[in-house]
Amino acid sequence: MQKEDWERLVQNLIAEGIxxxxxxxxxxxxxxxxLFLPDHLKSYYAVDSPLPIGxxxxxxxxxx
Length: 64
Prior knowledge:
Layout: H1 3-15, H2 22-30, E1 51-54, E2 57-59
Antiparallel strand pairs: 1-2
């Protein structure tokens, strides 16, 4: 996991106008999405896509 990957994703979402709220941007920079993923998916934490978390559920894509 590279923190730079996550920051790049956040920057892209800001540039695309998807992230506009300073509070949401700050939260995305402070909370590591990998904390909510099963071990075998932690390396995908910066992928802009929903990811399975088990029990038929997913964690939302960062954009939304």
